[in-house]
């Protein structure tokens, strides 16, 4: 096999081969026969969560499944489908997901497994939409868990540790339209005095900064209702389309300027038909209590110069609390501090440690698909580790990353 890397190219997988089943039965046979295995999604993790010295298995070749329930409240999808493809099919049926991440290119199962998210003070991460999960265990047995089952809260954002997720049932709602606005130059005085109002002033709100000053470079608002003016808490409406990463083409981004459009063409920052973001990057993200949002901004400002030296852009967002054991938003409304770093691991890792140190008093929880150096403190990790041992007693789906995480 030719060397296989993740999307960013910072991880070269150690797998012997990639299994590519074309049917559910074939997937069950291959999983049962393997000795060590990890599931390969769309490759948007930035650490060795998906790595293995055994085999990788890709579910992208499974038949596409989009089964809308008769009551139109849920949809059952296969484990290999990507959000952009699912969203277009749902919208054609007059339905929508509650939220999407910045990139529509990621696989649904992979994003759910790492509690990946969009933004919005009232919006849970993408895993909170899951009503049912179908998993092939290490012995090839197909197991289904649904909301209300005792093991369900540990089986959704499960990091691929329980087995291969071959299907998910997701909550859906009627399709809706959004308007997207970009404002520039949000003053530091507004950030200090009005941050809770700013973060709640839209269906989804993202603040982009390069930490070169206390001001915020861009505010991305996704709103159900139109804005009433060109001023937003002291920021000025952009005079044309913008990209959050300086120097990148704005044409890669979803439409701005307040033009109403379908939910799936406004919730992501990037268009499905273009290469997402820049690719030449590393990423980290930490979630802190939303009630400490101002303290978190002040903490990172302590190492602003160190951060700016290796940063492309930083995004600040909100996520509502949930009950999922391995979610960084477990029982905590959260502020997410996302960092898109330059593609230089040696230069970035010391700064990652700096950020973790200044955020430590705020009990930060990392996004487990991104780069972090300190051991995460997750309240239900012991319960999750016990669940993993029950599902996979021989550790077929374990790897070094999970061993360090779970003990």
UniProtKB/TrEMBL annotation:
GO cellular component: membrane
Domain FAD-binding PCMH-type, residue spans: 11-175
GO molecular function: D-arabinono-1,4-lactone oxidase activity; FAD binding; L-gulono-1,4-lactone dehydrogenase activity
SUPFAM superfamilies with a match to the protein in the record: FAD-binding/transporter-associated domain-like
UniProt xrefs under PROSITE patterns: FAD_PCMH
Keywords assigned by UniProt, alphabetized: Oxidoreductase
A Pfam family annotated for this UniProt entry: ALO
Name assigned to this protein: Xylitol oxidase
Organism the protein comes from: Actinoplanes cyaneus
Gene name tied to this protein: xyoA_1
